[in-house]
Amino acid sequence: MKTNQFAVYQVKAGVETKDLRFRSYAYAKEHKASITVKNYEQAYLSVLLPTDTPETIWQRLKKQPKALRGHSIGVSDVLVLNQNGVVTSYYIDKTGLVALVGFIRQNSSGTLVTIDTEEFQVEGRNGTWMATDETQVDGKQFFLLESEKYRENADFIIVDEQGKFICESRSGFDDAALQRIRGYLNLPISPQLTPPPMQKPPMENWQKYYENGEYLRAAEITEEQNYNMIDGRINNLPTPRVIGGRISVLDRLKIKQAEIMQKNGKAAPELAMAEGMERNRK
Question: Are 125 and 154 in contact (CB under 8 A)?
Answer without folding.
Answer: no
